[in-house]
């Protein structure tokens, strides 16, 4: 099966929103967005170090960069 770019993005959103329950505005999705990870291929290529270094801008706390 060949995945298009839009299929890969749709899969990413399904995994985050439905499987993990971490939709738009959640720290996990915000941190992935900060790193420009927006499709299932980029998500599956994250290393342990990448995961450990995820951060997001905490809009509830003056946009302070907060680790996950």
Features:
68 residues; mainly alpha; two-stranded antiparallel sheet; 2 strands; globular
Structure description:
The radius of gyration is 13 Å and the shape is globular. The longest helix is centred in the first third of the chain and has 15 residues, at 5-19. It has helices at residues 5-19, 27-34, 40-44, 48-52; strands at 55-58, 64-67. Strands 1-2 form a two-stranded antiparallel ribbon. The chain is mainly alpha-helical and 68 residues long. Helix content is 49%, strand content 12%. The chain has one domain.
Task: Provide a concise account of the structure shown.
With 68 residues, this protein is mainly α.
Q: Which strand-content bin applies to the residues?
A: 5-15%
- Kindly report the oligomeric state of this protein: single chain
> What distance separates the N and C termini?
34 Å
- How many DSSP helices? 4
Into how many domains do the coordinates divide? Answer: 1
Low-confidence stretches: none
Query: Order of strands in the sheet with the most strands?
Result: 1-2
**Which secondary-structure class do the elements indicate?**
mainly alpha
Kindly provide the radius of gyration, computed on alpha-carbon positions and rounded to a whole number of angstroms.
Answer: 13 Å
Order of helices and strands: HHHHEE
**Major sheet summary line:** 2 strands, antiparallel
Q: What percent of the residues sit in helical stretches (DSSP H or I)? A: 40-55%
Overall form: globular
The total beta strand count reads 2
What is the typical, i.e. mean, pLDDT?
Answer: 94
